[in-house]
Amino acid sequence: MLKIFVLKSSFDIRTISSITAITAFSLLMGCQTLPSTMSKMPTDMSASNPLTARMPAIDGQGRIAYVEEQGFGAAKISTLYSIRPDGSDRQLIDQLNGYIYAPAWSADGQMLAYSKQAARQHPKIYLYDRKSNTKNLIVDVEGSNLSASFSPDGKKLLYSSTVGGNADIYEMRLSDGNTRQLTTLPSTEVQPSYAADGQSFVYTSDKVRAGRPSIYRYNFATSNAALIPTAGYAASPQLSLDGQRLAYLNGRKAAVMTLATGQVLNLAETGLDEPARLSPSAQYAVYPTKLSQVSSQNGGSLVIHSLSGNTSYAISSKTGGVVRSPIWGR
User: Which residues form the signal peptide (predicted)?
Assistant: First the structure.
């Protein structure tokens, strides 16, 4: 049964002085389990949700794709869903005995890219077409193929792969599969995400210190990358459509940075080492939490946070599983 809950923002924002390498960056292992820092139980808002009533149409009419996981090890079952931001119309997209990673919408919200990893196989990238309800395998090279991102015109796809040995970033032309390698460093370069103008992308690299990632911005015109200043461990970047905000994992907190000022809003320790992701209008952020926001509900939740109103609400998992990797599309 679908449940939606409204939360007040009251998260622990204490500085964490020592942070170990997280799975979203290492790509090959399950995420560390952390305690949730939610301090108040939400109010049940199943019948009425004032936050979604005030949402811009570009947000409210969009869909959030996310993954629910159940079981452990060889018994792991991963299910990919999409849902409306008000918690309605939850739809199953894919399911397998194994792992589903990092869904990403195309700019028009009609295509979804994601990685699947069945038992004893490497992660492969698939495309789901909403109109035809079809799924097609597009990246099946040896290695870990993860973190797809559509170009703004929908004609290309960025992704990371270990096909060359260490993790690097590649760009594929979807019309014919032509692929070029963009990074060639001996370090780990992962989690690429296009800027809305298509002239650059942000990504994660540990080229300065192994196991200690930072966020960089790669310029297509110059083929050079510049560091985006952050405090300590930073990974899983996503730029807002207007280019003014950056959602990312700040240490172990889901966070949003205003790029012009460097001001950081830490939303929560999610309990999953998961980043925040921005709505199309960039007025809201979504992130998962490991535990349900009500004691009577098993499993995780999606939390949607208003960046201007400093209020939140939660959508409970469908199956009582762990919720991961939400992404908000049009």
Answer: none
DSSP state of 10: -
C-alpha distances out from residue 256 to 74, 128, 230, 279, Å: 35, 28, 11, 12
Buried b (16+ CB within 10 A) or exposed e, 116-128: bbeeeebbbbbbb
Angle at 248 between CA 246 and CA 252, to 5 degrees: 150
CATH of domain 4-11+30-329: 2.120.10.30
Q: How far is CA 227 from CA 87, 204, 215, in A?
A: 37, 10, 6
Say if CB 162 and CB 143 are below 8 A apart: yes
The candidate with the shortest Cα–Cα distance to 285, out of 267, 304, 309, 265, is 304
- Helix (H) / strand (E) element for 287: namely strand 284-289
Q: How far apart are CA 293 and CA 315, in angstroms?
A: 9
Provide the sign of the torsion angle of the four alpha carbons 86, 329, 161, 182, taken in this order. negative
Task: Fill in the amino acid letter for 187.
Answer: S
> Count H helices, E strands: the chain?
3, 25
Question: Rounded distance, CA 73 to CA 327, Å?
Answer: 25
Q: What is the pLDDT of residues 5-37, one digit of tens each?
A: 333 332 222 222 232 333 434 443 333 222 233
Tokens standing for residue 160: 């990371």
Token digits of residue 46: 């199943």
Distances (CA, A) of 243 to 194, 201, 246: 10, 11, 8
When pLDDT is cut at 50, 70 and 90, the band that residue 319 belongs to is confident
Structural tokens at position 198? 């298509």
Looking at the chain, the whole-number percentage of residues with pLDDT higher than 70 is 82
Pure H helices in the chain? 23-26, 50-53, 57-60
For residue 7, the model assigns a pLDDT of: 37
Return the pLDDT at 52.
Answer: 79
- What CA–CA distance (Å, rounded) separates 19 from 222? 33
